[in-house]
Each structure stands twice: as structure tokens, then as C-alpha cells.
Amino acid sequence: MTVRLTTDKDTGVALLTLDRPEKLNAIDADMAERLGRAWREVRFDDTVRAVVVTGAGGRAFCTGLDRDTAAEVPQPGSPYSIDDPLLAIGPKANDLWKPVIAAVDGMACGGAFYLLGEAEFVIAGSTATFFDPHTTYGMVSAFESILMAQRMPFGEATRMALMGTAERMSARRAYEVGLVSEVTEPGEAVAAALRCAEVVAGYPTEAVQGTVRACWAAQEAARTHALAHAPHLISLGNLPADRQSELFAGRRPGGFRVR
Q1: How many CA atoms lie within 13 A of 57 on its CB side?
Q2: In the predicted model, is pLDDT for residue 233 greater than 70?
Q3: Which InterPro entries match (predicted)?
Q4: Contact between 92 and 118 (Cβ < 8 Å)
């Protein structure tokens, strides 16, 4: 089972866990499908009033698309169209408007931003790090950068996207720029997120969900317009898959700095 969903009926809080710790919770086709199914299940479960999403193992929240399975996703030939297997892994993509809190320990990079970008807020352990490897491996960071540009200042989002694997944003810096709302001791992010979720779940459901929609309405128009440009930017800017694989195979673990 690559995704675990547990629900506490007493508190009204569900815990959704990405469970491929041996792969640093990288997302393959099976996990992507299960994530979509889990969000839709929560959507129709009236006993769930708030959700915490996290990753198993402590080393990573999620490291994006599993590179070993990326070649299995067929792509149309037009630069104006792309089939992104991660587009439907987030709560908003599945029309879930119950509050979602992300709890991050370890690495969160690349495709993890599809989840972080659709959470209401993020809590991170002090050893968490955030980075976007796309440009390093000859890929356009489009969807990810758009989502992050709505969560932190433009310069910070752009720096993360352009610096690739050379630099990782620390939990403390992520808090300073607004990506993270709270930094905890290592391993305590889930507990802190659950405490917040229990508070929110205890409030009247209609008021909470209406507030969620109001907050997202403030930025949805710009987000929707920007996302519409992403497919052909990726199709035009990505290196061929075999060249991406060469760059990925030649990566140097540890060759980065944390700021």
C-alpha cells in the first residue's frame, strides 16, 4: 500500500500518509492514482472535517515523480498539451475544500509541491529542506514554480526554481519567507499538524469550508491563468528524456548547500 488513510472519528481528522519510504516517497503511477482516490474518499466522508498529509520514514515528505517510472507516462506530440501524472494528486485538483495541513519532515522537492501548493498551510520539522531539481536535469519547472510563487515571495520562488539541486531551503528560511507557518523539533511536525487540524475540525463545518474557499478565491484567477501556460512551456523547454536520464544518473549526492 503506497498511501495510507486513517481517520479519527472522534476528532474528525484524517491522516493521509505517503508510504514509500524506501523510495523517499517518490510518486509512481500507483501512488498518484491512490492519492486521487484518497482525496475523493475524504471529500464524501462527512465525518472528516480536516486532513493532515505527510510522508512516511522521516527522510522525506516526498521527492516528486519517481524517475524510474517517468518513462511509462506517454505524452502527446503537441507542445500545447502534456499529460502530467501529478496534476491530479492534490486535494484541490480533486475538488476537496476541507482544510488540509501538510506536515513535512526531511526533503520536499519537485513534485511534492503539487501537494504543498494545495494545502492550506505547512508545518515543518527543523531539519526539513525544500528544493526544486528540474533545471538541473534539463526540465522546465512550470507547475511547481507557479504553485510556489503563490506561497512565497517571487524572488524566493524563482531562486528555488533556478538553483536546482545546488541549494536547499531550510525549514527556518521557509518559515521566514512564508512557505512554512510553524517549525517544530525534528519528528514533531505531524503531531503539531494534528493539533491544528483538531482545532479546525472542532469548528462549524460550513464556516470552515467557506473560509477555505474565500482564501483560495483571492488567488485562484491568477493561478488558473498561469497553469494554462505550463503544458507548452514544458513541452518546448524540456530536454529529451534520454538526456534528462543522463543528467540524473550523473548527479552528485551532497553537492548542495542549505540556506
Answers
A1: 20
A2: no
A3: ClpP/crotonase-like_dom_sf, Enoyl-CoA_hydra/iso
A4: yes
pLDDT for 243: 75
CB atoms within 10 A of CB 92: 17
Write the CB contacts of 208 (distance below 8 Å, at least 6 apart in sequence): 49, 50, 98, 99, 200, 201
Structural domain 3-185+199-205, CATH architecture: Alpha-Beta Complex (3.90)
Tens of pLDDT, residue by residue over 148-165, are 999 999 999 999 999 999
d(CA 255, CA 124): 23
CA distance 184 to 126: 6
Q: What is the pLDDT of residue 90?
A: 97
Q: Residue 176 CA to chain centroid, in angstroms? A: 19
For residue 53, which of 107, 1, 121 has the smallest C-alpha distance?
121
What is the C-alpha separation between 4 and 16, in angstroms, rounded?
Answer: 6
Q: Are 141 and 149 in contact (CB under 8 A)?
A: no
Average of per-residue pLDDT across 6-22? 97
The predicted model scores a pTM of: 0.88
244: Cα separation from own chain's centroid:
22
For residue 227, pLDDT beyond 80: no
Q: How far apart are CA 29 and CA 44, in angstroms?
A: 23
pLDDT tens-digit map of 176-216: 999 999 999 999 999 999 999 999 999 999 999 999 999 99
Q: Where are the domains of the chain?
A: 3-185+199-205
3-state secondary structure of 165: helix
What is the rounded distance in angstroms from the CA atom of residue 166 to the CA atom of residue 170? 13
- Amino acid type, 13: V
